[in-house]
């Protein structure tokens, strides 16, 4: 994972909403025409066809955005089980993972709401206490899920 700021410079991760190194989780693996591949949860948003798209809705033929802005076509999609589940957050809400531009957000809540809920934590700085993260998770219970694309 490389966190990238607006001008392409590095950006720091200020918190993880998920950080489980042990559990096994279903992931969506996307392979691209240039030999690249990324595996992420089906609910995690990736930049596809110029929009934030939940990975489970990306189709063969869609174009993913690379960290350098280049667009590459998806040639294969598969569901795989992988160890670990991580969701880092940057102040810019964007990261580059395995060379692909992804959002820090998932379909757990709409991105605009996630941005608003995380805003105070961005102001607090690094080392957000686990109790604060748990409180934000609790506040999202019952909130409608995010759409498949934005």
Give a nutshell description of this structure.
With 150 residues, this protein is an alpha+beta fold. Helix content is 16%, strand content 46%.
Structure explained in plain terms:
- The protein is α+β, with helices and mostly antiparallel strands.
- It has helices spanning 111-124, 130-139; strands at residues 2-3, 13-32, 37-40, 44-48, 51-54, 63-65, 71-90, 94-97, 100-106.
- The strands form 2 sheets. Strands 1-8-9-4-5 form a 5-stranded antiparallel β-sheet, covered by helices on one side. The protein has a 4-stranded antiparallel β-sheet with strand order 3-2-7-6, with no helix packed on it.
- A hairpin with a 5-residue loop joins β6 (63-65) and β7 (71-90).
- The protein is globular, with a radius of gyration of 15 Å.
- The two termini are 23 Å apart.
Q: What percentage of residues falls in helices of 4 or more residues?
A: 10-25%
Stretches where pLDDT is under 50 for at least 5 consecutive residues are none
Structural class: alpha+beta
Helical segment count:
2
- The span between the termini is 23 Å
Largest sheet, if any? 5 strands, antiparallel
Q: What general form does the structure show?
A: globular
Gyration radius over CA: 15 Å
Number of strands: 9
> What topology, given as strand order, has the largest sheet?
1-8-9-4-5
């Amino acid at each position: 994972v490389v966190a990238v700021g607006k001008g392409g410079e590095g950006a720091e991760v200020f918190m993880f909403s998920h950080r489980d190194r042990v559990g096994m989780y279903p992931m969506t693996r996307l392979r691209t025409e240039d030999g690249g591949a990324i595996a992420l949860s089906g609910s995690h948003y990736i930049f596809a066809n110029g929009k934030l798209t939940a990975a489970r809705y990306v189709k063969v033929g869609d174009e993913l955005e690379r960290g350098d802005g280049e667009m590459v076509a998806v040639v294969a999609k598969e569901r795989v089980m992988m160890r670990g589940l991580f969701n880092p957050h940057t102040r810019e809400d964007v990261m580059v993972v395995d060379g692909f531009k992804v959002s820090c957000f998932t379909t757990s809540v709409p991105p605009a709401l996630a941005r608003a809920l995380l805003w105070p934590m961005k102001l607090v700085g690094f080392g957000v206490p686990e109790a604060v993260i748990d409180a934000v998770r609790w506040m999202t219970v019952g909130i409608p899920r995010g759409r498949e694309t934005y």
